[in-house]
Design goal:
Elements lengths: L7 H17 L14 H16 L1 H8 L9 H15 L4 H14 L7 H9 L17 H11 L1 H11 L6 E4 L9 E3 L5 E3 L16 E3 L6 H6 L6 E4 L6 H8 L3 E6 L2 H14 L4 E4 L11 E7 L14 H4 L5 H16 L2 E11 L8 H10 L3 E3 L18 E3 L10 E8 L1
Parallel strand pairs: 5-6, 5-8, 6-7, 8-9
Antiparallel strand pairs: 1-3, 1-4, 2-3, 9-12, 10-12, 11-12
This protein binds S-adenosylmethionine (SAM).
S-adenosylmethionine binds next to helix 10 and strand 6.
Length: 413
């Protein structure tokens, strides 16, 4: 974003978001922006905050030599935002003036507006963040990934996570209006220039939906047949429900969260697809009949989605993982009981951690002696993505960037 007088409100809101995430540990999705911000300013504030979080380590490397001691967080975040804007090509004088004005307006920052001015005037010219090493993932994620994939792979993943992720969409069968983009081998379309999604051709007519290429692969691996009874266990916000319904399955979509299920209903309505919606805790729900196929997209650490959620490294410390692993195992055991004898269950998580993928699968195979893995048979799937167990490991550095996922198809003997 280029500096300009109209962007002061977006800028102050962006600093507020950074204070909430980095100071109070709030998730980006939960931060409430101030009332009275226009739609475009709201979007700009969110974009600025996300970009600063994604580049935070690089930004701090630029600032560190210019600061004798760490200023209060609210001041530091004004400086961080200004460094990002300079790196993004905004003119120095505009960025400095507006950062100083922002500091003057805040009760907690006004006494340090002189410092803001001095530091920003001392920034190198140009501010080249891309020349610095990509931000590293926190230790609780990085260490197990180095162990699982090796150091080079982790560096490649971190390089991708420092970039603005592309937007992929899944076309509906027989779609007429599609936005321009590159068709990936799996059939997802990577948009050439996303801009405002709701303005793209085919959005209003429901000809496609936004869904990362990796997220779309679980249902592609399932090989759904028309008329099959399919249960989507953790369904919201519903990208995979749409795929299942579009493939002609009779879909039951279940999720514990009513507000999130409302988004599934909206998505079905826009795309003209249908599914039975159930709001329930899968750990207590009872199925009335068994299913031909079940998709379990289990709640997880979401470590495969750091590109889109750059706040996660700052608000999570890995302490939730053990609880999530136990929940995934309990959901998996329960879901297996709803399968027809010849049925298949696709288990997936958007996690990079083996604990929520490969190890979870190995533990399930031990708990259920009759359970077997069906290796994928898709011509476009690179064989090196298939694990020794027959699961699929998707990494963020594949195909120029995708979410990290683990997917496995299970059958009971
Ligand atoms: C990874 S998200 C699912 C994403 C979804 N499948 C999609 O493609 O859009 C995990 C979901 O699990 C749901 N969930 C968590 N615990 C659950 C439970 N005990 N029973 C049912 N749903 C649960 C959450 O509300 C969340 O929507």
């Amino acid at each position: 974003m280029k500096a300009g007088s109209d962007s002061v409100t977006a800028r102050s809101a962006a600093v507020g978001v950074l204070n909430a995430v980095l100071g109070d540990g709030q998730m980006l999705s939960q931060v409430i922006l101030p009332d009275g911000l226009s739609g475009p300013d709201r979007a700009r504030a969110e974009r600025l905050a996300v970009q600063v979080l994604r580049q935070l380590d690089r930004i701090d490397r630029v600032l560190r030599p210019l600061l004798r001691k760490a200023p209060p967080l609210a001041v530091l975040n004004i400086l961080r935002l200004a460094v990002w804007e300079r790196a993004d090509g905004a003119a120095a004088h505009g960025v400095v003036n507006e950062a100083v004005a922002l500091a003057r307006r805040g009760k907690r920052t006004t006494h340090l507006s002189g410092l803001v001015n001095a530091v920003l005037r001392a920034l190198p010219e140009p501010v080249d963040l891309a020349a610095l090493p990509a931000p590293q993932m926190p230790r609780w994620i990085r260490q197990p990934l180095v162990h699982a994939y090796g150091r080079d792979a982790v560096v490649a993943i971190e390089a991708v996570q420092a970039q603005v992720p592309p937007v992929d969409v899944t076309p509906k069968a027989g779609a007429v209006a599609l936005p321009e983009g590159e068709v990936l081998p799996s059939g997802s379309i990577r948009l050439a220039s996303p801009g405002q999604i709701t303005q793209l051709p085919g959005y209003d007519s429901g000809d496609w939906w936004v869904q990362d290429a990796a997220a779309a692969m679980a249902v592609r691996l399932m090989g759904v047949q028309k008329g099959e009874a399919v249960l989507d266990v953790c369904a919201a916000p519903g990208g995979k429900t749409l795929q299942l319904a579009d493939a002609g399955a009779r879909v039951t979509a279940l999720d514990i969260s009513a507000p999130r299920m409302a988004r599934v209903a909206e998505n079905l309505s826009r795309t003209g697809l249908t599914a039975d919606l159930v709001v329930a805790d899968a750990l207590h729900w009872e199925a009335e009949a068994q299913f031909d196929a079940i998709l379990l997209d289990a709640p997880c650490s979401a470590t495969g989605t750091l590109r889109r959620h750059p706040d996660l490294p700052f608000i999570k410390d890995g302490s939730e993982v053990a609880g999530l692993v136990a929940l995934q195992a309990a959901l998996l055991d329960r879901a297996l009981g709803w399968l027809k004898p010849s049925g298949r269950l696709v288990y997936c998580t958007c996690s990079l951690l083996a604990a929520e993928g490969e190890d979870q699968l190995a533990a399930a195979l031990l708990r259920h002696p009759g359970l077997a893995v069906v290796p994928p048979a898709l011509p476009w799937l690179p064989p090196e993505w298939v694990t020794a167990q027959g699961g699929v490991r998707l990494r963020p550095d594949y195909w120029g960037g995708m979410d990290g996922f683990f997917i496995a198809t299970l059958i009971t003997a």
